[in-house]
Design goal:
Elements lengths: L10 E4 L25 H10 L3 E7 L10 H17 L6 E5 L14 H10 L6 E5 L2 H8 L4 E5 L15 E3 L5 H12 L5
Bound molecules: magnesium ion (MG) and zinc ion.
Zinc ion binds next to loops.
Length: about 190
């Protein structure tokens, strides 16, 4: 009997606010407020060219708080995806938690969104990294065995991380070389 070796694509999980777009300390409820962080579009193009799977996982509690309609959030994400595509990048999936309390299984620091993405996109957490600017992203990732990359953009509560982040970066641009170099060390087969 012949076995076919499963081919697993390295996956980059991205938090949204503070990683893709500027985290202005207020909830983004319209496309007008959405501003890409400098360098992000270059970084995602680089990830795309390297063949990584790119999945966004974002807490959007303003939905349950009735500050934002899901259709408006979809519109923001549609525009975001279009700008990324124009820059030569792509996104394989966007998962958001609409809930405002910790009762659900999807709100980070819980790992529900990552687990759902794993099922739907054939992801191997050992060949995955999560980039986020909150301890919640780090715990959502480390609790399922993802490598973690902490974007430290403010006085961040590092002590709330269950596990020390594997990488720390000061801005998203630093991920451009670091993440491909990290995946090269894993010797992963590409799709
Ligand atoms: Mg964030
Ligand atoms: Zn949720």
């Amino acid at each position: 009997m012949e076995y076919i070796t499963p081919i697993v694509t390295p996956t980059v999980f991205l938090d949204r606010d503070g990683v893709i777009n500027k985290d202005k300390g207020v909830y983004i409820t319209s496309w007008n407020q959405f501003e890409f962080l400098p360098g992000f579009l270059d970084v995602i193009r680089e990830f795309t060219e390297r063949g990584f799977k790119i999945i966004i996982v974002t807490n959007q509690p303003q939905i349950e708080r009735k500050m934002l309609e899901e259709s408006e959030l979809d519109y923001i994400h549609y525009n975001m995806g279009f700008e990324i595509m124009k820059s030569g990048g792509k996104i394989d999936g966007i998962y958001y938690c609409p809930h405002s309390s910790n009762k659900c299984e999807c709100r980070k620091p819980k790992s529900g969104m990552l687990l759902k993405a794993k099922k739907e996109h054939n992801i191997d957490f050992k060949n995955s990294i999560i980039i986020g600017n909150s301890w919640k992203d780090m715990n959502a990732g480390s609790n399922v065995g993802c490598t973690t990359c902490f974007l430290i953009d403010r006085l961040t509560d590092l002590h709330k991380c269950d596990k020390e982040p594997d990488f720390c970066i000061a801005d998203i641009y630093q991920a451009k070389d670091l993440i491909p170099a990290f995946f090269n060390t894993l010797n992963v087969e590409r799709e």
